[in-house]
Amino acid sequence: VLTHAAAPPFFAAALAAVAGRVAAHHCRDAECAVREVHRVLRPGGRFVLSDNYAPDDEPLDRFINTLETVRDPTHVREHTVQGWRDLIESAGMSITDETRGTVRIDVEPWLARSRTPEAEARRARAMLRDAPPPTREAFAIDENAFQLLKVVLRAVR
Questions:
Q1: Hey, is 56 helix, strand or coil?
Q2: Residue 157 near residue 92 (C-beta atoms within 8 A)
Q3: Entry pTM
Q4: Which of these, 51, 50, 54, lies nearest to 65 by C-alpha position?
Q5: What residues contact residue 93 under an 8 Å CB cut-off, 6+ apart?
Q6: Geometric angle at alpha carbon 132, from 131 and 137, rounded to 5°
Q7: Alpha-carbon dihedral of residues 91, 97, 101, 107, nearest 10 degrees?
Q8: Is the dihedral of CA 55, 57, 61, 63 positive or negative?
Q9: pLDDT tens readout for residues 79-95
């Protein structure tokens, strides 16, 4: 069932499992959304969060979150892995597993998917083109693509 993260239409302890896939970085109040996951999960219920994450380095964090917001104004925040973990654990769940990876993003289809207006698309292309070497390395930026950092966290209530 697809539902609004901050107010899911379920009774407390009604669900055995909840999954969030590449959506949490759009939540205006991710803390509230994760608390709601806890509320609707029954004891022993499972939660899986699969989303982008920002590096622990502040300039890299700022770069990826700015780039994502330029491309798509519904973007709120890619937390660091520890930030995602803290949200889940502070809601009362225990992390049971963590997997990290990357996904290659071809720039032009990425901009087209979100219907990025041309002025913002030019700004995003310029950010990628002009990124300093540490940023180019961290996100494997080349002429046509870059990589997003992905994490899958599994938790139990």
A1: coil
A2: yes
A3: 0.90
A4: 54
A5: 34, 37, 38, 41, 47, 155, 156, 157
A6: 90
A7: -30
A8: negative
A9: 999 999 999 999 999 99
